[in-house]
Amino acid sequence: MPRAPRITTRNARFQQWHALLTNRTKRLRAGEFLVQGVRPITLAVEHGWPTSALLYAEGRRLSNWARELLDSPAPGERIAMAPELLAELSERAEGDAEVVAVVRMPDDDLARIRVGPSFLGVLFDRPTSPGNLGTLIRSADAFGADGLVVTGHAADVYDPKSVRASTGSLFSLPTVRVPSPQEVDDWLADRGITVIGTDEHGESALWDTDLTGPVLLLVGNETTGLSNTWRARCDRTVHIPMHGAASSLNAANAATATLYEAARQRR
To answer: Cβ–Cβ contacts within 10 Å for residue 159, how many?
Structure first.
Protein backbone atom coordinates (compact mmCIF):
# COMPACT_ATOMS: atom_id res chain seq x y z
CA MET A 1 0.00 0.00 0.00
CA PRO A 2 1.50 3.39 -0.96
CA ARG A 3 2.19 5.95 1.74
CA ALA A 4 -1.13 7.51 2.79
CA PRO A 5 -1.93 11.07 3.80
CA ARG A 6 -1.79 11.58 7.58
CA ILE A 7 -4.16 13.34 9.96
CA THR A 8 -2.82 13.90 13.46
CA THR A 9 -4.81 16.98 14.54
CA ARG A 10 -8.47 17.95 14.62
CA ASN A 11 -8.17 19.73 11.31
CA ALA A 12 -10.96 20.72 8.90
CA ARG A 13 -11.27 17.25 7.36
CA PHE A 14 -11.49 15.63 10.78
CA GLN A 15 -14.18 18.12 11.80
CA GLN A 16 -16.17 17.36 8.65
CA TRP A 17 -16.11 13.63 9.37
CA HIS A 18 -16.90 14.13 13.05
CA ALA A 19 -19.97 16.17 12.09
CA LEU A 20 -21.28 13.13 10.20
CA LEU A 21 -21.70 11.40 13.58
CA THR A 22 -23.95 14.01 15.14
CA ASN A 23 -25.37 16.34 12.49
CA ARG A 24 -28.10 14.93 10.27
CA THR A 25 -28.21 18.03 8.08
CA LYS A 26 -24.48 17.81 7.35
CA ARG A 27 -24.78 14.08 6.60
CA LEU A 28 -27.52 14.81 4.09
CA ARG A 29 -25.63 17.72 2.54
CA ALA A 30 -22.44 15.69 2.21
CA GLY A 31 -24.28 12.56 1.09
CA GLU A 32 -21.94 10.54 3.32
CA PHE A 33 -21.97 8.71 6.65
CA LEU A 34 -19.50 6.81 8.83
CA VAL A 35 -19.38 3.03 9.14
CA GLN A 36 -17.55 1.20 11.91
CA GLY A 37 -16.88 -2.47 12.60
CA VAL A 38 -15.56 -5.42 10.64
CA ARG A 39 -18.89 -6.88 9.50
CA PRO A 40 -20.59 -3.61 8.46
CA ILE A 41 -17.56 -2.34 6.53
CA THR A 42 -17.06 -5.74 4.88
CA LEU A 43 -20.70 -5.89 3.79
CA ALA A 44 -20.63 -2.29 2.52
CA VAL A 45 -17.67 -3.14 0.29
CA GLU A 46 -19.07 -6.52 -0.82
CA HIS A 47 -22.39 -4.94 -1.84
CA GLY A 48 -20.68 -2.21 -3.82
CA TRP A 49 -21.41 0.83 -1.67
CA PRO A 50 -18.84 3.45 -2.68
CA THR A 51 -16.36 4.47 -0.02
CA SER A 52 -14.91 7.96 -0.33
CA ALA A 53 -12.27 7.28 2.36
CA LEU A 54 -10.93 4.48 4.52
CA LEU A 55 -9.43 5.85 7.73
CA TYR A 56 -7.03 3.64 9.68
CA ALA A 57 -5.00 3.89 12.85
CA GLU A 58 -1.49 5.12 12.16
CA GLY A 59 1.38 3.25 13.77
CA ARG A 60 -0.76 0.35 14.93
CA ARG A 61 -0.26 -3.24 13.89
CA LEU A 62 -3.30 -3.95 11.73
CA SER A 63 -5.19 -7.20 11.53
CA ASN A 64 -5.18 -9.29 8.36
CA TRP A 65 -8.73 -8.06 7.67
CA ALA A 66 -7.70 -4.39 7.86
CA ARG A 67 -4.59 -4.88 5.69
CA GLU A 68 -6.58 -6.79 3.06
CA LEU A 69 -9.28 -4.10 3.05
CA LEU A 70 -6.78 -1.27 2.62
CA ASP A 71 -4.98 -3.18 -0.17
CA SER A 72 -8.26 -4.11 -1.90
CA PRO A 73 -9.75 -2.42 -4.99
CA ALA A 74 -12.40 -0.79 -2.78
CA PRO A 75 -12.63 2.85 -3.86
CA GLY A 76 -11.69 5.77 -1.65
CA GLU A 77 -8.66 7.53 -0.30
CA ARG A 78 -6.61 5.71 2.36
CA ILE A 79 -5.84 8.05 5.25
CA ALA A 80 -3.64 7.30 8.26
CA MET A 81 -5.06 8.89 11.40
CA ALA A 82 -3.82 9.26 14.96
CA PRO A 83 -5.43 6.39 16.91
CA GLU A 84 -7.02 8.70 19.48
CA LEU A 85 -8.68 10.70 16.69
CA LEU A 86 -9.90 7.55 14.97
CA ALA A 87 -11.36 6.45 18.31
CA GLU A 88 -13.39 9.67 18.41
CA LEU A 89 -14.84 8.92 14.98
CA SER A 90 -15.67 5.38 16.06
CA GLU A 91 -17.27 6.66 19.29
CA ARG A 92 -15.16 4.33 21.38
CA ALA A 93 -13.66 5.29 24.72
CA GLU A 94 -10.55 3.26 23.95
CA GLY A 95 -8.33 3.81 20.95
CA ASP A 96 -8.78 0.33 19.51
CA ALA A 97 -10.62 1.06 16.26
CA GLU A 98 -8.68 -0.15 13.23
CA VAL A 99 -10.69 1.27 10.35
CA VAL A 100 -13.58 3.69 9.89
CA ALA A 101 -15.15 3.95 6.43
CA VAL A 102 -16.67 7.11 4.96
CA VAL A 103 -19.45 5.76 2.75
CA ARG A 104 -21.61 7.46 0.13
CA MET A 105 -25.40 7.34 0.50
CA PRO A 106 -27.37 5.82 -2.40
CA ASP A 107 -30.24 7.66 -4.02
CA ASP A 108 -33.63 7.42 -2.30
CA ASP A 109 -35.23 5.68 -5.27
CA LEU A 110 -38.00 3.12 -4.79
CA ALA A 111 -36.78 1.39 -7.94
CA ARG A 112 -33.94 0.02 -5.77
CA ILE A 113 -36.50 -2.32 -4.18
CA ARG A 114 -37.24 -5.36 -6.34
CA VAL A 115 -40.95 -6.15 -6.69
CA GLY A 116 -41.84 -9.63 -7.90
CA PRO A 117 -44.60 -12.22 -7.42
CA SER A 118 -43.34 -13.13 -3.93
CA PHE A 119 -42.66 -9.55 -2.85
CA LEU A 120 -42.34 -8.92 0.89
CA GLY A 121 -41.76 -5.31 1.86
CA VAL A 122 -41.94 -3.24 5.02
CA LEU A 123 -42.92 0.39 5.48
CA PHE A 124 -42.00 2.12 8.75
CA ASP A 125 -44.16 5.19 9.33
CA ARG A 126 -42.33 8.03 11.13
CA PRO A 127 -39.97 6.01 13.35
CA THR A 128 -38.51 8.14 16.13
CA SER A 129 -35.74 5.83 17.37
CA PRO A 130 -32.66 5.21 15.20
CA GLY A 131 -32.05 2.03 17.20
CA ASN A 132 -35.52 0.69 16.37
CA LEU A 133 -35.01 1.60 12.74
CA GLY A 134 -31.70 -0.26 12.55
CA THR A 135 -33.18 -3.25 14.37
CA LEU A 136 -36.04 -3.42 11.87
CA ILE A 137 -33.59 -3.26 8.95
CA ARG A 138 -31.75 -6.23 10.49
CA SER A 139 -34.97 -8.22 10.99
CA ALA A 140 -36.29 -7.47 7.51
CA ASP A 141 -33.00 -8.67 6.03
CA ALA A 142 -32.98 -11.79 8.21
CA PHE A 143 -36.50 -12.87 7.22
CA GLY A 144 -36.19 -12.31 3.50
CA ALA A 145 -37.83 -8.94 2.89
CA ASP A 146 -37.10 -7.25 -0.42
CA GLY A 147 -36.80 -3.77 1.04
CA LEU A 148 -37.78 -1.20 3.63
CA VAL A 149 -39.50 2.13 3.04
CA VAL A 150 -39.16 4.86 5.70
CA THR A 151 -41.78 7.59 5.48
CA GLY A 152 -42.51 11.00 6.89
CA HIS A 153 -40.54 12.98 9.47
CA ALA A 154 -38.50 10.05 10.73
CA ALA A 155 -35.29 8.97 12.41
CA ASP A 156 -32.35 8.98 10.03
CA VAL A 157 -31.46 5.69 8.34
CA TYR A 158 -27.81 6.81 8.37
CA ASP A 159 -27.65 7.86 12.02
CA PRO A 160 -24.75 5.96 13.66
CA LYS A 161 -27.19 4.26 16.07
CA SER A 162 -29.28 2.99 13.17
CA VAL A 163 -26.24 1.82 11.20
CA ARG A 164 -24.86 -0.03 14.24
CA ALA A 165 -28.21 -1.63 15.12
CA SER A 166 -28.54 -2.96 11.58
CA THR A 167 -25.24 -4.88 12.06
CA GLY A 168 -24.48 -4.50 8.36
CA SER A 169 -27.92 -5.42 7.00
CA LEU A 170 -28.33 -1.83 5.81
CA PHE A 171 -25.91 -2.70 2.99
CA SER A 172 -27.82 -5.75 1.75
CA LEU A 173 -31.44 -4.58 2.24
CA PRO A 174 -32.57 -1.68 0.03
CA THR A 175 -33.81 1.01 2.43
CA VAL A 176 -35.43 4.06 0.91
CA ARG A 177 -36.61 7.30 2.53
CA VAL A 178 -39.86 8.65 1.05
CA PRO A 179 -41.44 11.95 2.14
CA SER A 180 -45.01 11.44 0.89
CA PRO A 181 -47.55 8.60 0.61
CA GLN A 182 -48.22 9.56 -3.01
CA GLU A 183 -44.79 8.29 -4.07
CA VAL A 184 -45.56 4.93 -2.47
CA ASP A 185 -49.00 4.85 -4.10
CA ASP A 186 -47.44 5.41 -7.51
CA TRP A 187 -44.86 2.72 -6.86
CA LEU A 188 -47.50 0.17 -5.77
CA ALA A 189 -50.00 0.97 -8.52
CA ASP A 190 -51.27 -2.06 -10.48
CA ARG A 191 -48.80 -4.46 -8.87
CA GLY A 192 -51.39 -6.49 -6.94
CA ILE A 193 -49.71 -5.94 -3.58
CA THR A 194 -51.76 -6.41 -0.41
CA VAL A 195 -51.12 -3.68 2.17
CA ILE A 196 -51.32 -5.02 5.73
CA GLY A 197 -51.06 -2.77 8.74
CA THR A 198 -49.85 -3.94 12.15
CA ASP A 199 -51.92 -2.61 15.04
CA GLU A 200 -52.68 -3.81 18.57
CA HIS A 201 -56.38 -3.52 17.70
CA GLY A 202 -56.04 -5.09 14.24
CA GLU A 203 -59.10 -6.83 12.86
CA SER A 204 -57.52 -10.29 12.56
CA ALA A 205 -54.86 -12.29 14.37
CA LEU A 206 -51.46 -12.39 12.70
CA TRP A 207 -51.40 -16.17 12.34
CA ASP A 208 -54.86 -16.18 10.75
CA THR A 209 -53.72 -13.83 7.98
CA ASP A 210 -52.38 -15.02 4.64
CA LEU A 211 -48.94 -13.47 4.15
CA THR A 212 -47.82 -15.69 1.26
CA GLY A 213 -48.71 -13.35 -1.62
CA PRO A 214 -47.05 -10.06 -2.50
CA VAL A 215 -47.37 -8.04 0.70
CA LEU A 216 -46.33 -4.66 2.07
CA LEU A 217 -46.34 -4.63 5.89
CA LEU A 218 -46.98 -1.25 7.51
CA VAL A 219 -45.43 -0.52 10.91
CA GLY A 220 -46.51 2.58 12.82
CA ASN A 221 -44.70 5.17 14.88
CA GLU A 222 -43.52 3.87 18.27
CA THR A 223 -45.85 6.20 20.23
CA THR A 224 -48.88 6.88 18.05
CA GLY A 225 -48.94 3.88 15.72
CA LEU A 226 -50.00 4.20 12.10
CA SER A 227 -51.16 7.61 10.97
CA ASN A 228 -54.71 7.95 9.66
CA THR A 229 -53.24 8.47 6.20
CA TRP A 230 -51.51 5.10 6.19
CA ARG A 231 -54.30 3.31 8.04
CA ALA A 232 -56.68 4.32 5.23
CA ARG A 233 -54.35 2.64 2.74
CA CYS A 234 -54.45 -0.75 4.50
CA ASP A 235 -56.35 -3.60 2.87
CA ARG A 236 -56.51 -5.14 6.35
CA THR A 237 -54.94 -4.76 9.78
CA VAL A 238 -53.54 -7.50 12.01
CA HIS A 239 -52.71 -7.85 15.68
CA ILE A 240 -50.29 -10.13 17.49
CA PRO A 241 -52.12 -12.16 20.17
CA MET A 242 -50.30 -11.75 23.48
CA HIS A 243 -50.45 -13.03 27.05
CA GLY A 244 -49.29 -11.50 30.29
CA ALA A 245 -49.48 -7.88 31.36
CA ALA A 246 -48.02 -6.34 28.21
CA SER A 247 -50.60 -4.54 26.07
CA SER A 248 -48.32 -3.98 23.10
CA LEU A 249 -44.85 -4.64 21.71
CA ASN A 250 -42.03 -2.32 20.77
CA ALA A 251 -42.50 -1.38 17.09
CA ALA A 252 -39.35 -3.17 15.94
CA ASN A 253 -40.24 -6.27 17.97
CA ALA A 254 -43.78 -6.36 16.56
CA ALA A 255 -42.43 -6.01 13.04
CA THR A 256 -39.92 -8.80 13.69
CA ALA A 257 -42.69 -11.14 14.86
CA THR A 258 -44.75 -10.29 11.77
CA LEU A 259 -41.80 -10.85 9.43
CA TYR A 260 -41.08 -14.19 11.09
CA GLU A 261 -44.69 -15.29 10.54
CA ALA A 262 -44.50 -14.22 6.89
CA ALA A 263 -41.28 -16.21 6.43
CA ARG A 264 -42.81 -19.23 8.22
CA GLN A 265 -45.87 -19.23 5.97
CA ARG A 266 -43.74 -18.90 2.84
CA ARG A 267 -41.64 -21.89 3.81
So the answer is: 20
